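ok so for the tutorial part 2 we go from a plain amino acid sequence to predicted structure tokens. step 1 is just haveing the sequence, like this:
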Amino acid sequence: MTEFEFEEEEYVCTGCGGENWHANVFFLNCKKRWVADRDCDFWCADCDGPTDITPLKEYEEEDEE
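step 2 — the prediction. this is what the tokens look like for a chain of 65 residues:
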């Protein structure tokens, strides 16, 4: 069972379209599940800063327009 959408579908950085991002998650033991960090959900190493992510398909569609 997966907890996050990006585990099932390919996602990229909304800023640069790169795949070199990571999710800031931690295990919340009292609830026995992984949760996202509220201060900085995602970080892109290519942009070297906080970012958001989008499905690759949607990013490619926006890029074509």
